[in-house]
Amino acid sequence: MASVSPLVNTPSSAGSPTVEEESKAPPTASGPVPLNTMDSHVNQQQDLQVFTVGFFLAQLLGVLCVALAGAWSGHYLGGFAWQSVPSLQFNYHPLFMVIGLVFLYGDAILVYRVMRNERKKILKLIHAGLHTLAFIFVVVALKAVFDSHNLAANPIPNMYSLHSWLGLAAVVLFSLQFVCGFVSYLFPGVSQYWRAWYLPVHVYFGVVIYVLGIGACLMGITEKLIFSLKSDYKDLPGTAVLGNILGVVLVCFGILIVYLVTTPQFKRQSLPEEENLQLTPHSPIN
């Protein structure tokens, strides 16, 4: 009697396929849906539910960050003014940095995962639009802090603290990232090869700049509290408590955004019409 190889799957005695054969069989119009396809669909739905909950929680934390920054700057630090009162002009700096470099920037890098059923061309425009709005807030924030130093009765030196160094580094990198991203993905005439090569670099530095920006915000909060309260900081007056809470919420918001934007299971899947667009050196330009 000939022996049966263990690498060959034999049908059952009733002539029906085994479970392994059924799971490998391609789906047909009248046949059963493969088990592996069903499992994949269930996993995708579960991942999408987790992402949705995480996204709405992130939005709540983001709005809370902006509200806390507004209350801290508008009430505890004395309110807002422009160049007529340089000390109050400074208060636009923390508020606008939180709005631009943290909240809007965080939402911008989530666009592709949140609006996963939209065409890529639309997503590119929304992504660029949110970054443009964030960049405007960042520029005004820088104007406010430099004016508050230079226009003070006793001018304050610029760019001497670690906060200012890392903060400016984040803004410069953000500016370069903005220009490179615009040229690569919205400017006509750029080859698909370059776009494909630059994409992982663009994604990586997008997260790096975001983390760097939040780190600079935390150092800025601490620096402002120390300069304003001096030895009273240890007594935790209301200004210090709110500033510390703002820092904690910023960290929580940043952690959640980075988790949502880096988890592979949450990645946007290409639409059917995008499957044929191969990013090769000889591909035609979109």
TrEMBL record:
Tell me the segments the record calls region Disordered: 1-36
PROSITE patterns associated with the record: CYTOCHROME_B561
Query: Where does the protein end up?
Result: Membrane
Membrane-crossing segments per the record: 48-72, 92-113, 125-146, 166-187, 199-221, 241-261
Major place of localization?
Answer: membrane
**Compositional bias of kind Polar residues:** 1-16
Task: Give the UniProt keywords, A-Z.
Answer: Electron transport, Heme, Iron, Membrane, Metal-binding, Transmembrane, Transmembrane helix, Transport
What cofactor requirement does the entry state? heme b
Matching InterPro entries, A to Z? Answer: CYB561/CYBRD1-like (IPR043205), Cyt_b561/ferric_Rdtase_TM (IPR006593)
Q: Where is the Cytochrome b561 domain?
A: 57-262
Q: Does the keyword Transport apply?
A: yes
Record protein name field: Cytochrome b561-like isoform X2
> What organism is this sequence from?
Limulus polyphemus
